[in-house]
Structure formats: structure tokens, C-alpha cells
């Protein structure tokens, strides 16, 4: 139960990171925009993957019920 909520949290964090990177680069003129985009997208992707893996964890009960 709490693992699925943690997965949902990581998915939300991924969205916030991506939004923050895009909005901050629009309003501020950074010297290394490419580096900021790369690091932001990589971190958002990592959080998204962790969130999806955690939220898709299933108990062994579902597989056994399908086989019956």
C-alpha cells in the first residue's frame, strides 16, 4: 500500500522537476541551458521510472487467481 503511494509521489516529483526546468529556463537567461535541460530531463526520467516501478508492484495473489 505505502509502496504504491511512494511510486505516485515519485511520478509527481518527476512532473514537478520537468515543469520547473522548463519554466525556469523560460524566465531566466542561463548560460548553460543545454546542461540544465539534460540534467533536468535525466532526473525527471529517473524519478518517473522509479515511480512507475514502485507503483506497478503486485502481490503474488493476482497471478495465482488468474491461473485458477
From TrEMBL:
Superkingdom of the source species: Bacteria
Chain segments annotated as transmembrane: 34-54
Keyword terms, alphabetized: Membrane, Transmembrane, Transmembrane helix
InterPro entries: DUF6722
Alphabetized Pfam families for the sequence: DUF6722
Protein name: ABC transporter permease
Annotated organism of origin: Segatella copri
Phylogenetic lineage: Bacteria, Pseudomonadati, Bacteroidota, Bacteroidia, Bacteroidales
